[in-house]
Structures
1.
Amino acid sequence: MDSRSHTPVTAALRLCLHALLTGLLALVAVRAVGEGAPHAGAVVALTLVTAGVYGAGALAGRPGPAGAGVRAGAGVRAGAEARATSVRQRASIRPGSRAAALWLAALCALWLGLLVLSPDALWVAFPLYFLQLHLLPTRWGVPAVVVTAAAAITSFVVHRQEIAPGAFIGPLIGAAVAIATVLGYDALFRESERRRELIVELVATRAELAEAERTAGTLAERERLAREIHDTLAQGLSSIQLLLRAAERTLPGDAPAATHVRAAREAAQANLAEARSFVRALTPPDLEHGSLAAALERLCTRTTGPDLTVRFAVSGTPVELPTPYEVALLRTAQSALANTVRHARAGRAEITLSFMDTSVALDVVDDGQGFEPSGAPVTERGDGGFGLPAMRSRAATLGGTLSVESAPGQGTALAVTLPVAGPVQNEERAA
């Protein structure tokens, strides 16, 4: 029997059934002996055999009305557990098993023998009702109860040689009560199982929601830290490095302070690389909607220094962009300005964000020393993660293009264009 059915109430019901059947069998034997029935010895012997068969089955399978719900809840047991116990179940008295059917058939046959010998045996029909409904499927249990009630009524009529309303009403009412009790318990058990499964599902859902909230909070905090490091430490160290480089150029080579300025610049460069490493590790792959223009303007403000002025402009009517687009454009602007600060020796740079009918473009232009694009002078050294190959890869991932126009001594113009209408945008928004 399912361990979930071993409750104080069901255990009490099971004991009541055992006591009822034992008491009724004892009543049959006592009345047969006390009234001097013609077959008193046979009645007592058959009663003892019936009690023994019932006791053996009770010890083997612990049958009772409480197990009616096991039949309804058998489907919720794990497959591995069912396979592991299938052999033992086939050999024990359990609902729906062959052993249960044979045991019940033996009890009914013994009871029919008692009916023939003693009219008092008809009262044993009441506990048999519960056993039949418990051990047999509903489609067989209900007809078996009806047949048992008919046999009890027939026995009364044969032994008493009279037809009385009580002979019909008693067994029929008992059968109706037994059917209503067992089927009602079965329905309650199924409802209890559904509630239990619902509670398990709710607990699991609550755990998933809590985990999602923790993850969202972690990502939000990581994004905040990355933004703070980028907007304060990284940009501040970049400005410090730029100022120290300018100071180093103005100092004579044999100046006592030149060594200290150089060491300070190298320390600032190392810490800038470390800060960028933290940003890469902390920044999640998302960006708040509507913050791209503000982030670009803030980037320009932070990058502006004594030797470099960076301006930001927006062209066209701004539209809401998918989050990956905003991330790609912001990272491209950061990479381009980093290259300008570290390599271009420019005095002025400008970032323009242009919204067009079918695309969005980001232009980064500076008046620096320029370079030959085919020579690819900007390499990815691992300290900042910037470079033209990384920019091209980011743009190509979103179906866009990256173009670079430059020449030695004529500055550099970098433009990245991403489509805002078509399959890419639709897929991003659908996601």
2.
Amino acid sequence: MDHTESRDGTTGTDAHTDVTPATPEPAPESGKKRRRPWVRRVGRIALVLALVLVVPLLAVETTLRVNYMGDPADGTHTRGRDAMWLGHAWVDGRKKDADVTALARRLKDTGVRDLYVHTGPLEHDGTLPESLYPRARWFIDAVHRELPGVRVQAFLGDVLANGGPEGLELSDAATRAEVVRSAGQVLDTGYEGVHLDLEPLHSGDGNYLGLLDDLRELTRERDAQLSVAAHQIDPLPHLHSVAGLVADHPKWWSQKFFGQVARRVDQIAVMSYDTARLFESTYGGYVAQQTSLALEVTPPTTHLLMGLPFYYENNPSHWGHAETVAAAVRGARLGLSRTDPDRELFGLAPYIDFAASETNWKEFEDGWVR
């Protein structure tokens, strides 16, 4: 039978015959296959996650770059209250009189008035073997001879148990008591202060605050200094809490906790390096922000110091081309200018002597000492 095709896709022989549906012809294939629904959903989720992560990151980096703009106020230079971290070689017998003479020549007229000399590390139970610092008395006497007015403090540190399977446990009262006893031990040796560096220290640790209270009582009785190395402050509100969801030991302290620590010590030195910043300008802006945040909660009776990276290395947490001494100095001056330009108890603290280059020293002297 002869069939003809109508416009609506049906077929028939003439006007008097019944019209029956025909199987529709497949539509021509387009150049692209249509994505399945789950693929589209995954794509949307990926886009949202990218926006959630990238947009805030770009906003933070832009803010830090802007924070680095402008000129520091006149007079934001050394107050003659700077400090420096020194390595263990000064007290274990490796250094000689000639080394102290060279150190004195380097530090003369720089404003450095406190030396944090690595004297530990503490044992995990809080004790400190005297065999670790057999030449401490010699070094203290040599500094007093070569650099009158410069104080020598015992830099005591250890890894905390909350950063791994082993370490010093702050929640143990006996361990805290041993740390205090070790502090008295180094003061008996002739040190003029105790500088404590325990890492990684979680924000809000009440046991640490209690330890500082006990140490402060001891150092006041001995007319000695109590100083600490401090973690950086949340660059965004509650960032330490967010970071704690993905890391066992978040990098930052809350600003509130930083203030609680600062009120319990004579000196607090911010470890303002290892920031993962990729550019010199954003690193400098970060230091400016950290300086302002620290100044806001550090009482005027506490000496605030901002750490400088006197070393060069490249890794995901520290890019040497970005974390320069020049950027850190300028950032600290900008933060000081904007927050408390007349503050006297303020200084910078290079870390560390044995890794310092001539460029580090020049940028420190040109930007801060002048």
